[in-house]
Each structure stands twice: as C-alpha cells, then as structure tokens.
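Why this split exists: single-chain examples teach little about how molecules sit against one another. For that reason, every record in the complexes split bundles all components of an assembly together and asks for one structure covering all of them. Below is a record exactly as it appears in the raw files.
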Amino acid sequence: MEVKPNETKQISAFFVFFLMPGMQIGVGILGFEQVIAKEAGHDAWISVIISGLIINAFIWMCYKLLGRGPNTFDLVAIHQDLFGKWIGNTFNILFILYFIIISITIIRTYIEVIQVWMFPGINVLMLLTIILVLVYSFVTGGFRVLTGFSLIGLVIVAPLFLLIFFPLKHAHFGNLGPVLDHSFLEIMVACKKMTLNYVGFELLLIYYPFIKKRELSQKWAQFGVLFTMSIYLVSMIVSTAYYHQEQLKGLIWATLTFWKVVDLPFVERFEYVGITLWLFKVLPNICLGVWAASRTMKRVFGVKQKKMVVFILSVILVSGLLLDTHNEIYWFNTLVSRIGFFIIFLYIPFIFIWQSIVYKVRSHKP
Amino acid sequence: MKVKMLLIALGCFFLTACGVEKQILEDILIAEIVGYDDVGDNKIKGTVVVSVPQPGKEGNIKKEVYEAVSHDVKAARQQENAETPFPVVGGRLTVIFYGDILARKGLNDYVDTYRRDPIVGRDLYLAIVHGKAEDLVKMETKLIKTPGVQVNELIKQNIRTNLPQVDLHTYLYACHGKGIDPTLPLMEVADGRIRIKGIALFKKDKYIDKYIPYEDGFLYKVLNENFKLGSYEIKWSDKNSTDISNIKSRVHYDITSANQDPKVRIDVKIKASLLEVQGYDLSKPVDVNKIEAKAERILGKKLDEMVTMFQENNIDPIALGDFAKSKTRNFNRKHWEKEYPHMPIDVNLDIELVQTGIVE
C-alpha cells in the first residue's frame, strides 16, 4: 500500500500554515456573526477565541494520532490499523461522504450569495458547471497545485480583510461591554455553533503524508489556526461594534454587509468586487474538499483518483441543483455543521483515546 | 483532451450570460432622490428624480420627475415604470424623503425595502420633510447642480457641524436598538430653496412632531458625539452677542446604579476659539474668563433644557439607555425605561477658550 508519495509531490512543512486557513476560511466568514451572536450576544468574540484554542488542542491530537503506529501516516491507515479492514473502511467511507457534503455546502452557499447579492436570475447549473470544471482542473493538478492555490487565494483576498477599516469609522466599541455578561452555557453553545467555521483542519489527517519533514509542521499548523482565529475575531469584534445586537441577529451576511459601507470614489457597490474576488477563497476550499474525498477513495478502493474526481464532481453538481431555496441551503448548512461538530468534538477524541488503549494493550503482548 | 476542456469551458461561459439581466447605463434611469407622502387610505405617493443621460452630449444630464401612488414602496416603483421609457434603478439613490404625516405613522414599513434590497447602498441619507416630500423632490430638479445632488451635499456638509450622522445604517442601528431612538434631519422648502429646518425627533420609528431647531443642532451634536467643527452664538446682552467656534468637543456619560435609582452625569468639554465679539472696548484685550463663564452658563442652561425635553417626551436620542446597558451587568431594561422620564441627568459643561483669533 502506497503511503509515502513521491518527493516531487510533497510540500514543505511551512505551507501547512496556508493550508489551514485555506480550508477553514470560506463562505462561513461571510455571515457567521449572526449565528453566534444569537447565542452569546456581545460576548460572541469570547466564543471565537475559546473555540479557536480548542481547535489548537485538536490539532495536537491529530499529530499524536498520526505519528504513533507503524505506517499510520493518514486516516485510512489509522482506521484500518485500529478497526481492521472492513470496519475501518466503513469509517473511511463515512469520511469520504463528509468531505463531499462539505464541498457541496461551500459551493452552494457561495452560489446563493451570488444569487441574492448580484444576479437573482443566474443559471445555477451553468455556474456550478463552470466552477466544477475549474475544480477539476485544479484537483487533477495534484496536491502541490492545491497548496499553491491556497496560498494565492489567501494573498488575493487579503486586501478584503483591510476593508474592516470602513465600518470602524462608525463603530461603537461600548457595545462590547459589559464583558462576560452571558452565562458559561450560552458561550459554550456559541462555541459549538462556531465549529463549522473551523472545520477543515481535519484534512490534515489526509494530506499528512504529503508534508516533507512532517514532525516540524505542527508548529505551522497551530499558527495557521491562530491566523484563522484572528481573522474571525476581528470580524466578530467589528460587527459587534458596528451593528446593534438586535440588528446583527437579523443579518444573514454581516461581513458582506460591511463591504456595502465601503465608499470609494470609483466603485459605488464594492460588494460586487468583493464577492467576485471571494471566488479565489472559495475555490481552494472546494478543491481541497474534493481532493481529500478522492484521495481517500483512491486509498480505500485502489482506483484511479481522476475517475473518482469526476464521480465526486457529478455528485456535487446534482446535489447543488437539488438545494434550491435559502431555507433548504440553511438546513443543509446546519446539518453539515452538526456533522462537523460530531466529527471534531466527538470522533477525533474518541479515536485518539481508542488508539491509546489499543497500543497500550498491544505493547503488553509479548 | 485540452481542446475538449476548452470547448466545455467556453460553452459554459456563453450559456451563463442567459441568466443575468444586463443593466446598460443608457438603458436604465438612475433614481437619485425619492420622496414618499401619505395620501390617505393607507396609500403612499412616491416621487422620484431620475437622471437621464442625453445621448451625444457630455456632462449634461437632464433630470426628470415621475410619480406614482400605491400601497408600498416597491409597488410605487412598479407604477412609475408605467410612465418611464426605461426601468428605474435604485442603486445610486442618495437621499430618501418622507413627508411628516407619513413619518408620524411610523417609517419602518417604508424603510424595510431599502434595508432588504441588496442593490441599495448603506451611505444614503434619510430625511423628513416639513410639509410634503413631493414639493421638495420637485424643487431639486430646479436646482440643477452638476455633478452630484444638491440635497445630498447639503446634508453631507451639515453633518460636520449641525446634524448627527443620518445615513441608513445609523437609522437602522437606532431603530433596532433598545435604549436608542433615531433622529433624522427635518427639511423644508422656503423661498424656492431647500433648507434644513432642524433635527426631527423620533420615538422608535415614529416622528413625534418635535424638532431641534437648526441653530441648536450644534448643541445636540455636542451632547451626542465627539466632533471638531461648528460654531454657536452666545447672546451677550440685548443687542450684543459673541460667537465661539468649536475646535474639539468631547462628551462623556457617567451612569451610576442603573439598576436601582439611576443617576446620569454628562460631562461635556469644549475647546473653542473666539470667532466674533460685539460691543467691546477696542483698547483692551477681551476678558477670556468672563466670556468662558458666560458661555458655560448660557450653553449649560440650553443643554439642560434639551435633556429635559428628551425626558418629557420619553425619547432617548443620545442613547443613554444603550450606554447604561453596556456598563451594567444584568441590566434591567424595564426598570430603566420606567425611571428614564424622571431620573436626574446633570450636564456639566466645561468651555475652554484656547485662542482668540489673531488679535487679543
């Protein structure tokens, strides 16, 4: 079984820093404020920090998981090692489905943004096809291409993060007080809701073999998550200061609405520029999701990855068309959020503990 | 393979265009300002000024007015299209006016579409018209001033001195928020010109038929925010007055025991310069201390009156309730709202004349 990819396909440890936000920051950031403000009000920013730190702990867990056994350098190998071939592969298939539905959520939510904000009458089938053709060409380029694309995507949208300056002019920072006015439970519920926005780090379990000098990459993975967290934190604090709580609770896309405030002499509606540029942030997301799904399929079934990519993309195309109204998309998002929560907060610790037990038992055997 | 891919990609590009509605500048009418009036029977009358680009001419834009009567804002837009050669598009709206009768009934129903529609920006102004919005909107077309829109610039320049921030976002912020009430500029048509009459006061989205006169707008701004411009006339005696110009004004609210018996102290610090003095002795320098004391007394009294007026009408345009909430743990809003009309609010005014101009 191939575990170690050719060195020409590997990436330096440093690039894990870009892969983390590359997968984590996607469509969620355009409107996550509303969801967590509903739970924790003006203390929502605390939840952003807490959940970010929890993710740091989970990354540490992932690295522990990956290095411990013989040749268990990715999730497929870990599953097969711990549960045997059949049960292990069942888990693998569940993960394949998980990566596919994440990709569906991202692409469909992005198209919904285009429908609501720019072109209500746009042909969803055609837009989906264009994006998926792009995804195909990137994913078949291999993992190195995707890493580069994550980096470039981040660089291209970086100026958009600076747009936070415009709402700051009308910000009421008094809105943040009094700090910790919500109960511990409310803040933890908000943390739970925040998870969908950090989902994506678990891809590490798939692309780990592709990292050169893997042991050194943990530092960069942790920094990457901290970077993601700081972006979310700034958006959360600024939207708490800029909107009134009651107003924020009714806004579906708070970050996008920031771009409406941007007042430049040469662009009347900046959100058109912003949404268009955001494709460069969304595409690496989808590509990495599809890549992870197809890579896992290849490892499990031993088939050609390219064929699997075509199969996955057609599944995404059909499901993207089936989700039609905002409520359906919202429902699907919530569903994926729940599954993501389950995977991160329950499954990863479970498999971590299970692995510890298994290895302890094995080491006692002569 | 590559050719095939290219063909697929190209095919997609050509087909996608089908779903998108094109908006070519010459084929649309850009709405610039719009006014709404109550015409009874739950109907409103919308009046819109659109700019019509003249083909073949540069920098010469004609303005036209269209009117329609309907139940809601977007239906009025639809009605207007019955008269216009091209669709009216709201993407560049700069000011929305509401007639005072409509404003008294509550504005939320007529602001909602601007809040909801992604095509509308957030930096457009809302304003109330003393009388009919229709008259003001029609006046705008007579005051041709290119580029830009006269009323928009009128409001914009006054926001620096006499008006609070009055854009759509600020209105929505105050309307959603508990413990804040919005304010909007009150406009009127006088002698063939558009002028600002003052600041219209609201209880939530309802105009309470009271306003702060234009010249006292400076005082309202002093109470409401930190700012750097504006000037105010202090009546010195019957025929003499002194004018001070604001260099920097700082306001700070201090609220104690908001959940039991609330007390509010508003500290206002103005650094000012002397603009104009009447009836003084040429041979002596002006007595800065005397002017400061007098100004503090007169302005302080005015500020007190203004705050008392807010309390009497049970409105909170300077957002004391919101401030109290952000400073108090487990804030009891019901208690605050009950106490608000008769809680003691002290205004401490400190005016410092830092310069007297280029003469003593």
